[in-house]
């Protein structure tokens, strides 16, 4: 019998669930406990199929628009945030609505609204079509915010008044890529105002920093996360940029491209902010089935952030 090849598996920390994701999932769970099934959820509560299927099995019904929800059942708004028109429509229909928007996304909404009220045109740094970007731009009247995705977009930006500008960013972007875009904005529009504290959330920053710490030491990186998860895709990009020769995104152990890892002697493993730890541990087990694995945890930060659930659900959480 041939001995299994040896493999050094570097486990990034922090990884996986952030406080905003944990809160959003808990909100759906508590809503099901309090009001029973079905509870409707506008958009995936977080971008992870495992989480969505688990909640669906308990009675959550995931829809894309409020039009797909009946008036007489609770509806939860996803962690990514929603345009202002959505809760307004829910109120018009007298629906029982619970907002699971991550508080750090809500912070960006408040910043954008404040700048708009003060007469500034908003530049949104984000990805077109991502629900968080749609939700943030939807806090403002149509056309009040301009979207940029790259430094090249900044070069062609047509603004109303270069002296009356402010920018906000999606919370799940690449820290380094966003710094380039912000630098381009400030170079072209020196008077532009930014957030008091950066909009990219602590969890995104920490997970990217952990990947940067292991990237120079590994032959390959595996990121556990959904293909529609912005922060997970950014981890793949960050790994490659930081010196890892190969990186792949997989939703679970069954999706890993094992052939692409042949010959690797050191592999990094992390997970996006909406991927549960049980998926990571299943991947570790899958590696152990194929290799003689030595695991080393590389911890670059300790997270102690917690967010409270909405008041309407707190009696359920007692």
UniProtKB/TrEMBL annotation:
Catalytic activity as recorded in UniProt: dimethylallyl diphosphate + 2 oxidized [2Fe-2S]-[ferredoxin] + H2O = (2E)-4-hydroxy-3-methylbut-2-enyl diphosphate + 2 reduced [2Fe-2S]-[ferredoxin] + 2 H(+); isopentenyl diphosphate + 2 oxidized [2Fe-2S]-[ferredoxin] + H2O = (2E)-4-hydroxy-3-methylbut-2-enyl diphosphate + 2 reduced [2Fe-2S]-[ferredoxin] + 2 H(+)
Keywords on record: 4Fe-4S, Iron, Iron-sulfur, Isoprene biosynthesis, Metal-binding, Oxidoreductase
Classification via Gene3D superfamilies: 3.40.50.11270, 4-hydroxy-3-methylbut-2-enyl diphosphate reductase, catalytic domain
One of the Pfam families matching this protein, by short name: LYTB
Top-level taxon: Bacteria
Keyword presence, Transcription regulation: no
One term of GO molecular function: 4-hydroxy-3-methylbut-2-enyl diphosphate reductase activity
Residues that coordinate or bind isopentenyl diphosphate: 47, 80, 130, 229-231, 274
Catalytic center residues: 132
Binding site for [4Fe-4S] cluster: 18, 102, 201
UniProt KW RNA-binding keyword: no
Annotated positions binding (2E)-4-hydroxy-3-methylbut-2-enyl diphosphate: 47, 80, 130, 171, 229-231, 274
Residues binding dimethylallyl diphosphate, per UniProt: 47, 80, 130, 229-231, 274
Cofactor field: [4Fe-4S] cluster
Listed pathway(s): Isoprenoid biosynthesis; isopentenyl diphosphate biosynthesis via DXP pathway; isopentenyl diphosphate from 1-deoxy-D-xylulose 5-phosphate: step 6/6; Isoprenoid biosynthesis; dimethylallyl diphosphate biosynthesis; dimethylallyl diphosphate from (2E)-4-hydroxy-3-methylbutenyl diphosphate: step 1/1
Cofactor note: Binds 1 [4Fe-4S] cluster per subunit.
One GO term (biological process): dimethylallyl diphosphate biosynthetic process
EC number: 1.17.7.4
InterPro entries linked to this entry: LytB/IspH (IPR003451)
Family: Belongs to the IspH family.
Function description: Catalyzes the conversion of 1-hydroxy-2-methyl-2-(E)-butenyl 4-diphosphate (HMBPP) into a mixture of isopentenyl diphosphate (IPP) and dimethylallyl diphosphate (DMAPP). Acts in the terminal step of the DOXP/MEP pathway for isoprenoid precursor biosynthesis.
Protein name per its UniProtKB record: 4-hydroxy-3-methylbut-2-enyl diphosphate reductase
Organism: Rubrimonas cliftonensis
